[in-house]
């Protein structure tokens, strides 16, 4: 995929998920999510921290663990939404400033043994926010339609994510792939490849 197109599609996925977050109401932070270990507050803490961490990586500071640290969101919904939106716009701006697709990103939440070229790292971020956008939408019982271009770009990335024991580790964003996506729509194929059950509804402790 062309680097500029990847950045454009990533920005769309990030802003789509931020728009869903902006629809939070009082009491929503305790809602369950498709991520069985996380309620919506924990999911939003993870998403906001990931934006900050990837932004730091794009600016050459990814090895610093501080931006990656999850800070539980407060109880005031306008502040939660604003904090998340700020982090989302920061990572979009940081990715836009990367001058070459082979610029190396340090991603200590993935590994400390190597770095990743920008085009691969931004692909990681894109698939995270296509899926986390769905997570938020399902938690809030909202519609979710990323559009065919974004889904077509996300599907090969989802299929390339290693499906092994690492997905069973506590705090993993993805669980082992699920069967049953043959003949399903593109979003359902992405979700099952990454361990989500497309039929999940709030109150079901599955992922």
UniProtKB/TrEMBL annotation:
InterPro entries: CHP03086 (IPR017520), DinB/YfiT-like (IPR034660), Maleyloyr_isom (IPR017517), MDMPI_metal-binding (IPR024344). Signal peptide: none annotated. It holds the Pfam family MDMPI_N. Coiled coil: none annotated. Residues 12-137 form the Mycothiol-dependent maleylpyruvate isomerase metal-binding domain. Gene3D superfamilies: dinb family like domain. NCBIfam families: maleylpyruvate isomerase family mycothiol-dependent enzyme, TIGR03086 family metal-binding protein. This is TIGR03086 family protein.
């Amino acid at each position: 995929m062309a680097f500029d197109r990847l950045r454009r599609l990533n920005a769309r996925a990030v802003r789509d998920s931020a728009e869903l977050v902006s629809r939070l109401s009082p009491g929503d932070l305790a809602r369950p999510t498709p991520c069985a270990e996380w309620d919506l507050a924990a999911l939003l803490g993870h998403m906001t921290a990931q934006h900050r961490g990837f932004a730091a990586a794009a600016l050459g500071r990814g090895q610093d663990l501080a931006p990656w640290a999850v800070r539980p969101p407060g109880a005031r919904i306008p502040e939660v939404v604003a904090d998340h939106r700020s982090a989302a716009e920061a990572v979009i701006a940081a990715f836009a400033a990367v001058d070459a697709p082979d610029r190396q990103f340090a991603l200590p939440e993935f590994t400390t043994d190597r770095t990743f070229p920008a085009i691969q790292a931004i692909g990681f971020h894109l698939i995270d926010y296509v899926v986390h956008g769905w997570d938020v939408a399902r938690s809030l019982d909202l519609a979710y339609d990323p559009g065919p271009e974004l889904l077509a770009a996300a599907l090969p990335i989802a299929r390339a994510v290693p499906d092994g024991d690492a997905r069973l580790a506590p705090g993993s964003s993805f669980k082992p792939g699920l069967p049953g996506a043959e003949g399903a729509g593109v979003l359902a194929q992405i979700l099952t490849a990454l361990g989500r059950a497309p039929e999940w509804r709030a109150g079901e402790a599955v992922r």
